[in-house]
Give the backbone structure.
Amino acid sequence: MNRISDYLRDYWQLEQVSVTKKVNGFVFYLRKIPIIGKFIPTSFYQSYELKQILTVIGLIMENIRSILAKFLWLAFYYGAAILLNGESLSSGKAFTNQTGKLGLFLWLMIVVVLFNFYDGFVISGEKRIVEFIEQFQRPKLRIIRGYKLTDSFIHGLRYLPAAIIYGFVIGEPIKVTCFILLTYIGSRCFYLYLGRMIFTWHLSKRQRLILGSVVTVAVISSAVILVWKELAVVLLTVFLSWIGITIAIIFLICSCYALLHFKKEMDYVFYWSEMTTLSNVASQELASGKSYLSDGLAMQKKLVMNQEERFAHLDGNQYLNALLFSRYRKILNNAFRLRVYTIAASLIVVVILSFFDVRKVLTEEDMTRTLSLLFFIMYVMSFGKKVVQMVFVNCDVAMLYYPFYREAGTIIRGFNYRFKQTFFYNGLLSVGIFSVYLLLSVLNGFFLSWTFFGVLALLLLALSALFSFHELFVYYLIQPFTSEMEVVSPLYKIIAIIFYWIAYGNLQLKVSGFFYAIIVSIACLLYVGIGFLVIYKKAPKTFRIKD
């Protein structure tokens, strides 16, 4: 009992400290505003009573925000269940026991099974917890284990209002409330324990990545199969029975007991602290602007000199670029291999889905709606940023000081060589994505037409060209980096943000037909074509090292 009271007291004090820092930070920035700042004296920081009031208000607001977020989660999955059933909100069937159970099943698989798994599996500590331990000299073991355990129960309790209302909607308020509360808290505790067990296996970063990917594919595939075979509602009916709730209670108790009696907790705490420190260092680099060169710096650390290719037939800038890519070929290939794993996982999912004859629910028009997703997918997978950072950190940062390296012909030849190398990797990724669509069609009676594949090939070619060109284009025209690996051009950051939102905006589009794909393809190819003309004219004047 004393241990629980210690956990609760530590949790409350940590939250108080966090909110107080936010209040101080908010006041600090208010004082920076020219007119408003004059009315806020520095004595405010010494007004503990006022700050305590603001802190309590802040804590109340944070809890309200979290409770509302739980409503949104459950409403989102209820809406997904309505769409899966093909009903409209005006239909009487939209608000039924069956639809509600399907929505609850989707919430269970995604939030409880998948998201909570990553919460315990991925070891990423919060900076505020480390600072709290150091500043107030609190025991690491008690704070680290106690905070996560208490936080799991607090978040579970915040689900109560949403769970009660959801239960009334489908006609089983008591059972739904118990089910949501028990499964959410129980899974959080179980995965915290599972994360500690996996720690004892001493897995490498790659092994952890593979394990996480396998779990993700397994959960998503299981959810799809259960929904497809109409077993999801049957399964939820079992979970919502009193037998299912009893099992959930036992699961919660066992998970808490296992977590509280983990024998190597101190070893895990030291490991957690180390990972958190590394994460905080990375966050500081992110804030300082070095995140724009993080890939290049990471690749530099991984470089291991090996047998190099011979480039006797090349000279000058061409030789330097060929040598650079030769040295980093293995690292680039490793990054490419990770992307191939993702494509391979997609191919496996396609094979699994094909056992259930997707032609019953998928048409060519439905598949055209997925074309808008490819813009964001290629944005995430592209080698454009990686190549730009690699060539600056490992070549241009030194060579741009030499006059011969800044000659017009040298700059243009270097740009063309780097574009070809980037396009090589992005083009192969496009081929992999094309193969996913092709396999889906082949295994399901060739339900996609040759017109579809022609438009798909055009779009993937245009996107490969765009994402191979854009980062180099902006880099050569602005060259925003200094010899200290800092970004000195606000325009570069603005362009990066805008380009991200363009990619994200394409993710949100729900368009059917080929019009979107053709227009985007033409726009991308025009951008690349016109951009090459701009590069030939302007890059020799703009490609310089920044002070």
About this structure: The CA atoms of residues 109 and 220 lie 8 Å apart. The longest helix spans residues 48-84. Residues 286-290 have pLDDT under 50 and may be disordered.
